[in-house]
Amino acid sequence: MSLCVIPNCHNTKSGGYTLFKLPNEGEKSRSKWIQFIKICGVDTDNLKNHVFICEEHFEPSVMRENAIRKTLEKDAIPTIRARVDEFNNRNEIYNLQVKLEKCNEKCQQLERMIQLKKLLKTNVFLAN
Questions:
Q1: 55, 75, 88, 112: which has the highest count of C-beta atoms within 10 A?
Q2: Single pTM value for the model
Q3: Would residue 26 be called left, alpha or beta, if left means φ above 0 and alpha means ψ between -120 and 50 degrees?
């Protein structure tokens, strides 16, 4: 799953966002992308080539939208850091989703344990 590299931004392609790949070595915009990523708090020393930034970090003026997908103008640079309150809301929702998933897993485990205990009681009763 492709995920936006910007900290606290959980936008994904499957979530309906367009993700743009870090420009290749030699492209003049690559260093500016890396500078933006670094400003956002990402350690860029070991940055992989398969790094993506979502559409939310680009000005609308540098994006083109056709019937198939959104694209960037040549040498477009990400410039928008998400607002703190927007990040906090996304983080809170994300954290609640994670907690809910963990609760659901624990409920399923408890249900299996209850079924197992009932089965054991039935087997003990039948054995006597």
A1: 55
A2: 0.63
A3: left
